[in-house]
Amino acid sequence: MQKNKKKHFNRREFIGLGALGTMGLMLPQCRNPYEDIPHPTIPSYHTPAIVIGTGFGGAVAALRLGQAGIKTTVLERGQEWPVTNSYDTFSDQVSPDGRSTWLRNETVLPLPPHSSIDKYTGVLERVDFDTMQIYTGAGVGGGSLVYGGMTVQPRQDHFETIFPSEIDYAEMDAIYYPRVKSMLNASVISDILKNSDYYHFADIFHQQATNAGLNTRLIDLAYDWNIVEQELNGSMPESALKGELIYGNNNGCKNSLDKNYLAQARATGKVGIYALHQVDEITKKSDGRFSLQVQKLDEFGNVLDTSEMTCDYLFLCAGSVGTTKLLLKAKVKNKLPLLNSFVGQGWGSNGNVMFKRQGIITGTGTIQANPPIRALEHYNNPHTPVLIENAPFPIGAILPGVDCYCLLHLGVGLDTARGHYFYDQVNDDIGLFWPNTGNDTVVQALDHTVNMLNDANWGVESLDITVDPSGYTRDFTYHPCGGAVIGDVTDYYGRVEGYNKMYVVDGALMPGSSACANPSWTIAALAERCMDNILANDFPASS
């Protein structure tokens, strides 16, 4: 494949041209982008088990409950997003519409430009706090719809620094990490793709790291590489190769949870998954059942109806923000008064820091495909261990033939800074305290690594300053962790202290960090561990 002709734009030109890319939004649509989206059906008033959320914790809980023969209702606030033969289920990355974003009039990606859109129940949500912006997924499949598929297992020494000693790394390594990897069918990229022009930028990243005496490795990704190879040979419409990822992949190449865990859960015949059902409040009734106030939404976020649903066993899997909000609200309103004082504590950003290195004179390719395939492991960094993932910056999808001469990175650090959620009764909403110095240690570590890279590679200029004056973002995270931390709010298997038959089985369990790794694999593996113990000990044998 011939590389496209390169054109080098400076920072000011690039920002202006990037903004021009949004003008396609003003063109008439050829089709209604919201047609053929499934509408919710009506769940039962009472089921033995209810799972709130369909992300990496909820999907695991749903499948294992179904396999155990337990009738289960799964409630998901977002929509169902089935990939269709027309290959246009999700919003386009370059000219996004309402399907891209959860109930906003503007897109919310960390990097500009932002685009005006119609308010809609799209797949990516940004929750804004005073000093932190948290990104979450919304839809059947949760965060797996919008994540990069990076399946990274933390090292034992890092894991044992973060997690309680009661969680045995050897057991996780032998049983639960392999189980999840098999379910997600995660693997490194195929050679034919790796060696294509689409991933040339990853080769540049690897060579620059090698020049600096640093190591990179190919990481496992929850992708169907056969489909991406079909993109390469022209037998499948492009998705990954044209940069689609954060709004979903239109040809089904991403192995999101709706294709594995949730599909198998439904196949048991015991699990019903209900989209556009948002849980607003939970309480424990005098008869021992849990009561949920559930809002049925339409595609534009309007509340169509509010009803009560009850269950005997309740699994909170709405993510760090969603699960903690439900718990804090119930505690403050005296709906679950026995919740302990640790609820809301132990929140961390997983050390997320984004930055872009400019001025790479050899060029990084006019096309940069998703997903990210390489990571740099600088675990002996003198400040703190860091993992640097090399994300694509697909300017060529907007401006064919243009080379940005840049590399975009997401850093993940072994950060010990912690914040906490609180409940704002006036606004009936959750708040987050996060110190302004949070992530400082990770930024120092990344700056040390970046200086090593720049010193070893002639022609690299200073960091891009379009995001933050220092060149590093420190006020957003894709990886919110904590709020109902394992061993504090729950026992070491997710059982909520003070409430029999109520469980947290999601990212809220994480102790503020995923131990210098992307959290999805660890959240799912931890959920598998919890469910094994819960099903063995908390359910009657006849269930």
Describe this structure in words.
The protein has 12 helices and 19 strands. With 543 residues, it is α/β, with parallel strands linked by helices. The protein has a domain at 40-84 and 121-185 and 255-341 and 481-543: 3-Layer(bba) Sandwich (FAD/NAD(P)-binding domain). Helix 2 (56-67) packs parallel to helix 8. It is globular.
Write the layout of secondary structure elements.
Layout: H1 11-20, E1 46-52, H2 56-67, E2 72-75, E3 124-128, E4 133-137, E5 150-151, H3 156-162, H4 169-184, H5 191-194, H6 200-211, E6 215-218, E7 220-221, H7 225-233, H8 261-267, E8 271-274, E9 277-284, E10 290-297, E11 303-316, H9 319-332, E12 353-358, E13 374-378, E14 386-391, H10 395-398, E15 406-413, E16 420-424, E17 429-433, H11 440-456, E18 476-477, E19 502-504, H12 520-537
Parallel strand pairs: 1-2, 1-11, 2-8, 4-18, 11-19
Antiparallel strand pairs: 3-4, 5-7, 6-13, 9-10, 10-11, 12-15, 13-14, 14-15, 16-17
